[in-house]
From TrEMBL:
Belongs to the bacterial solute-binding protein 1 family. It holds the Pfam family SBP_bac_8. This is Alpha-glucoside ABC transporter substrate-binding protein. InterPro entries: Bact_solute-bd_prot1, SBP. Residues 1-26 form the signal peptide. Keywords: Signal, Transport. Gene3D superfamilies: Periplasmic binding protein-like II (3.40.190.10).
Amino acid sequence: MSLLSRPARITAVAAGLALIAAGCGSSENTTTPPAAGGSASVSAECQPFAEYGSFAGKTVSIYSPIRDTEADLFQEAWAPFAKCTGMKITYEGTGEFEAQIQVRSDAGNPPDIAIFPQPGLLERFAKAGKLKPASAKVKELTDTNWSPDWAKYATVDNVFYGAPLGASVKSFVWYSPKMFAEKGWKIPTTWDELMTLTDTIAATGIKPWCAGIESGDATGWPATDWIEDIILRDLGPEEYDNWVAHKLAFNDPKVAAAVDKVGAILKNDKYVNGGYGPVKSISSTAFQEGGVPITEGKCALHRQASFYANFWPEGTVVGEQDDVYAFYLPGNDASKKPVLGAGEFVAAFADRPEVQAVQAYLAGTDFPNRRMKLATYVSANKGVDLANAQNPIDKLSMEILQDPATIFRFDGSDLMPAAVGAGTFWKGMTDWINGKDTKSTLDFIDASWPKS
């Protein structure tokens, strides 16, 4: 899961948020946007949006798991587009997206556009005939701005349904550079060094690790990220792919070994849960709050994606010599650095011209650059200006995503059939944290894999 597929630090659901954008012909701005295909003059402010046409009086609805502060930032970023095209964009963010998008679709009340954090969930709706193929313009922009690997995640049975949006790099461990400097701790470059550091920290009386996996209907997903990162490192990219495709069973001994490796940290009361309590407190701690004890000196390490830069308490400075920073989650071999990541995809349940215009705008380069200028944000769009990055982790993440030499794998649970990736895998890992043994957990998940 990516940042934009998860709630922001304030946990209240920001449902029904609406961006009511005044048309360019309003009393505040008398510029009249050109009719679609027209040639009327436009202001300098609206020039970047002239190609999309005029949609005065039209409304496009967007439904998404992006909520709270992140939802506000999204709406602020696309406000000039909405204003200059004359359309109204209504936005609703929810922490129960994975369940409610199905409910809405089944009830015949789908949104015009949905922002899917899981390609596996998008695939379910595409195969059911609910989604509209993306326009030629969206496909062209995607081919220009993203690598082929990103485009394939929203392609089902050779039909392309939507461009990527935000992205994240998952393979990070957050820490306090100031705490490390004071204690004389060094950044580990291998798993063995990481475990030695963990023991060193524990010996000081500080719980080394803090974590939280509570996320409403999506509770459990941060634990699945841990498993994916270790499988990618210990078994390699090819075997990771086999596991995601269920060519390697969930209850295979190699998978069980990876889960137990994670358990050596997350199910060890000696190591967790700094600032919160025993192991079981992980399942009741909101993921947004999971790393906060680092800023209080009650925890030293928090494994979480690049997007966690959004969730530190106000005033926290992200930087190599500052309050918090992140290092690469090491594997057994320091020379091998595969990267786990995720993202969102913009797919549509309607193909009206105004809906296609919104999809095209989000697939271009203007939106991600505007969004980056507002606050921390990561995109794999090749048209983003890295100078707009709001912190060094954002910049590093985009450099990693855009480097052709990077061995990148998409979040496994997001690629799996939704019943598993957004269902039994999440539930299984929550039960595992709460005391269920590894074998029973993996047998449960494996048995849930669709038979056809």
